[in-house]
Amino acid sequence: MESGLESEEQTVSGLTTSKELCSKAQREGYAVGAFNSVNMESTQAIFRAAEAERAPFILQITQTTLAYTDPEELFAITTALSERATVPHAIHLDHGRSFAVVMRFLRLGMTSVMIDGSLQEDGKTPRSYEENIEVTRKVVEAAHALGVSVEGEIGRLGQIEKAEQETLLTDPGEAARFVGDTGVDLLAVAIGTKHGLFKGTPKIYHERVGEIAKQVGLPLVMHGGTGVPDDAVRAGVKNGICKINIDTQIRVAFYEAILEQADRIRKEFADADAKGEVHKFDIRGILAPARDAMTEAIRGRIRVFGASGKA
Hints:
By secondary structure, the protein is α/β, with parallel strands linked by helices. It is about 50% helix and about 15% strand. The protein has one domain (about 20-245, about 300-305): TIM Barrel (Alpha-Beta Barrel), CATH 3.20.20.70.
């Protein structure tokens, strides 16, 4: 793992940290796509898309994966693909809610972690600024000792009304103070996006992004990138967004492909019944098209982020 990027001539390759990837993106004016992985097919899709686009990327695993599978199993798949990858990438914990959770993922060999100190461990109740500082600083000290970069968060994600701007959007001055108090390497900011799908067109507060970028100086992170119009994404990148998280869009591509394959299988089964033939059960025939659909969805986002050919 490289220790840092001291000059524009220095390049990033192989497995590295999100700090190195996003520092390069910040200098060159694009954003690194951060894509969530939940199983083998989604992991393969992320690597395949990045290789096809020759783009740096961040593969993310959330702590909610603990309820679905043992992260060590998923990380083993990720490591196998990482060792063969020819484009620079980081393996990142997304939305770690506690110091203990972050430590568990650090032991797996993550090169980047996020501590979401903006919310309590239930993922719903807001933490105070002081509580956010305390848990984030603790993670930074542990992660930096291992050469791992840290993403922090300040503000509250979600679509907001004008009257709520001052209380829910990330305040530029507070963001600068937060960075100084914690030593984080990247900062996730509340600028009008939300996790999941939007109803209607999201309003992104681009001027606020620019104000934060000027005061903070670090690469900024857009969470909830699914559903943000392409022109709004590009404007965000122009104003200082260097990492964009995508999860739901990958899931939608998977679901749509699965439903299409289910319709095909029903027809094939009906034809087989009519002919008195035995049904064929091939899970690969369902999952391979779903993996391809996820790959294409990821490639599309990489292009919009301006990261194609940046490896």
